[in-house]
Amino acid sequence: MRRQRERVGFMRQALTVAGALGLLAGVAGADVTTERSASIVVFPKVITTSTRDTIIQITNTNNSMVHAHCYYINGALADPTAPQIPGINDPVWNELDFDIWLTKQQPTVWVASSGRNADPTDNSTSCAESNGSCYGVGLDPGFVPPTAEDFTGELRCIEVDATGQPVGGDHLKGEATLVNTSTGDVAKYNGIGILHNSGVEIDTDNVLCLGDSGPDICPSGAEYNACPDIWILNHFAENAEDPIADDEDPEINVVHTELTVVPCTEDLENKKAASVVIQFSVTNEYETSFSASTTVTCWENTRLEDINLAAFGRASLTTDFAQTRIRAVGTGGVLMVAEEFHQVQIHSADDVHIATAAFNPHIEDNPDSARSDTITFQPDLVVPEP
Amino acid sequence: MRHVRWASWAAAVATVLVVGAPHATRADVTSDQAAAIVVWPIVSVTRDTDSLAPFADDTLIQLSNTSTKPVVAHCFYLNANSHCSNSGDVCQIGAQCCGEGGCGFCLPAWNETDFDIVLTARQPIAWEASDGLSDFCSPNAEPGEPCIPLDGTSRKGPLDPTAPSGVKRFQSNAGTRILPVPETPFQGELKCIVIDQTSGEPVRGTAANVLIGQATLETAEDDSLDVAKYNAIGIKALAEGNSDPNPNVLTLQNSPAGQGDYEGCPNVIILNHFFDAAINPADDNLQIFTWPVFVPCTENLLQQIPGAAIAQYLVFNEFEQRFSTSNTVQCFRATGLSSIDTTQPENSIFNVGVAGTLVGQTRVTPIGSGLLAVALEFHATDSPVLNNGNHSADVNVHYQGQRSAADRITLP
Q1: B187 and B352 Cβ atoms separated by less than 8 Å
Q2: B223 and A350 in contact by Cβ < 8 A?
Q3: Which of B127, B215, B398, B408 has the fewest CB neighbours in a 10 Å radius?
């Protein structure tokens, strides 16, 4: 009897110590990823205008079926032709959500402007019969709705179970291809993945915790990794001359960089657009430093020169390349992608050509970072099982 | 006393439970964080030639130091050109070696040229692969002039925080000379490793994880402009490496089977792609072709022995149907997806007509050496060439897991 009590005590102590160590192991990392599968995948830049469209690719890297709850957020201004004026011409910040189901290792694709219908009559011979024009053939992930016209915003997909309850697992990866439908120009970036914090079970409230926002908001702790402390952007100075194209006119052959930024925090229940101040610390090739700042509300897509020409312009930087470190002020973080626009006149009598290249900026992990964000869903997201 | 013994046993078992549990994240190779080794798998210079289609005219290399201290990088161009046995011309296939005197062989080759770059705190630098950077900027240099920024005399950076106590030394790029690629046309790899300025030996430890880089592949000719960009792949130094007795042998391994100085190469490379010849669903005038570029993790630069790997491809289409194939990657491999398994692309498992859906997921498992990869995606009217109004986009691939076997880079 005494031996049995000791064994029980031993097991209790072992589990207690394991629990304590497990909690330590479960402390969320402060990084996101663009090269590993994750539980939340964010595409910050989705454009569907008259001249640009976006192809979304998402893949399940798991050997079992995976479900995801996805939503578009439209960051376009109510009147896209007019400047943003608070209270008069604000971003619409509409949300459009849908679910996708992906079978074992299944890839899927859709065009943002047209969405994807669920068609059970698909068969694999139609690709050969149509010489490769077989959009929509395959096991459809579900009905993917088209975006609104002139949509400029983001797409997020969150791994859930069959009832809609968010789960960890880190099984989703994705890419977005921005296509200029007039010129055929393409630019591609990887979706940004936010990893599940494997030491913490995701609770059933409708608040996802990216980092730990405290016991009142995040009773389970940090359910997902926190957003990055610092983003690092290697970029051309604004209006830098394109170095590879043969020079004909340095006033025409220029490079611009566009930055697309979304706050990590989103409140879809109350439709409250998060607002974050971000600071830029710019270092040119002569190691001279400049700085700038701006406010991002909901979704921001801007050229660097429109943030601050003095900090990012070639005339003030005096070099063609710079390294910019970007930090959000406060505890909330941001996610971002960058796109370069190269404008070149190849021969003096030619038209001016524009080609683009999108890329993922680098991140700097800070183990002491206090970043914490939340994604708050509508409460009816989870459908109880009968 | 008995209680104390139980407590220690409990702690031990608990530790085993926790250590044995799967870890949430691992720092594998990375294309979105700073690292001690940065690798650009594809650098191309093909100006005014058609012998290395579909590679870009020229490549702009960007490299940045993310730390607040100066850093020295030792860089290698690895020339993967093949040459004709009869003419010495650069070739891709034997048919390019046929002339009036008959045909020669297209012989693979692999050699390196190396140089140093000294970067000051937080400094970015960029150069065209065709030209490199040889001269320092003069005091009245114009923006955009290709030159090395800080010569240390007429142009200086801030004080060097790593200077010995009592010594006032300014940061500069003195010691930098960036070579152009050794021949044109050129296809190959660029690799930069953080080294100690005094000893010239690679720097071990996480303090070396300070470099980030990008490559911009650009073609501007025949009334056609195309730009594509990817992040250099970083290999992080470990906090406590188990150094090889030879300081010039870098061991890439971080697994229960052993620990080296740097993170190990990935176990699986995951590529999301369109099947070749798929019609672009957003622009039906264009077909899509994907060219993955692979380079081995193991390289013996001392004895000029390239790494070799068998790449096993596991392909899933949108019906969850599975195909597989394999090939050999020696030194450098950049071919279209549908040339991996056959010489008849229309019969390839990577061709859209055979695969039966628009997109696929391909999982590449290396055997032998580890592999690093990026993917080039061509949106073209009929074939993947870039000087015909066609366009391309580069993308970094995804990774899963870490190889248990070690890869080694042997420096000269």
Answers
A1: no
A2: yes
A3: B408
Strand B407-410 and strand B299-300: the pairing is parallel
Question: Residues B137-142: what's their mean pLDDT?
Answer: 90
Of B10, B32, B283, the CB nearest to A17: B10
Phi, psi of B183 (to 5 degrees): -155, 160
Of B9-13, B232-236, B294-298, least confident by mean pLDDT is: B9-13
Angstrom distance (rounded) from CA A123 to CA A132: 13
Query: B75 forms bridges with which residues in the sheet?
Result: B115, B192
Whether B397 and B271 have beta carbons less than 8 Å apart is answered as yes
- Partner residue opposite A173 with nearest CB, options B21, B123, B272: B272
Helix (H) or strand (E) holding A9: helix A2-25
**Contacts A–B by Cβ distance under 8 A:** 343
Kindly report the backbone phi and psi dihedral angles of residue A278, in degrees, each rounded to the nearest multiple of 5, phi listed first: -120, 140
Cβ-in-10-Å burial (0-12, 13-18, 19+) of B220 comes to: buried
What is the least distance, in Å, from the CA of A80 to any CA of chain B?
23
Distance from CA of A163 to the nearest CA of B (A): 23
Segment (H or E) for A315: helix A314-317
Rounded to 10 degrees, what is the CA torsion of B394, A235, A231, B273?
-10
Residue B2, pLDDT > 90, answer no
Nearest to A339 by CA among A277, A239, A259: A259
**What is the value of pTM for the model shown?**
0.91
Q: How far apart are CA A114 and CA A134, in angstroms?
A: 14
Q: Which residues of B touch A353 (CB under 8 A)?
A: 220, 223-225
Predicted confidence at residue A385, as pLDDT, reads: 62
Helices (DSSP H) in A26-135: which residue ranges?
A: 126-129
Q: What is the mean pLDDT of residues B360-375?
A: 97
Cβ separation of B396 and A34 shorter than 8 Å? Answer: yes
In A, which residues are within 8 Å of B226 by CB distance? Answer: 185, 355
Residue of chain A whose alpha carbon sits nearest to that of B392: A186
In chain A, what residues touch B17 (CB-CB under 8 Å)? 14, 18, 21-22
The answer on pLDDT for B1 being more than 90 is no
Which chain B positions have a beta carbon within 8 Å of A185's beta carbon? Answer: 226, 391
Pick from A129, A324, A362 the residue to mutate for testing the B interface (most B CBs within 10 Å): A362
Whether residues B272 and A175 touch (CB distance < 8 A) is answered with: yes
SS (H, E, C) B99-141: ECCEECCEEECCEEEEEEEEECCCCEEEEECCCCECCECCCCC
Q: Do B229 and A34 touch (CB under 8 A)?
A: no
Is residue A108 very low, low, confident or very high in pLDDT (cuts 50, 70, 90)?
Answer: very high
Residue B201, SS3?
Answer: coil
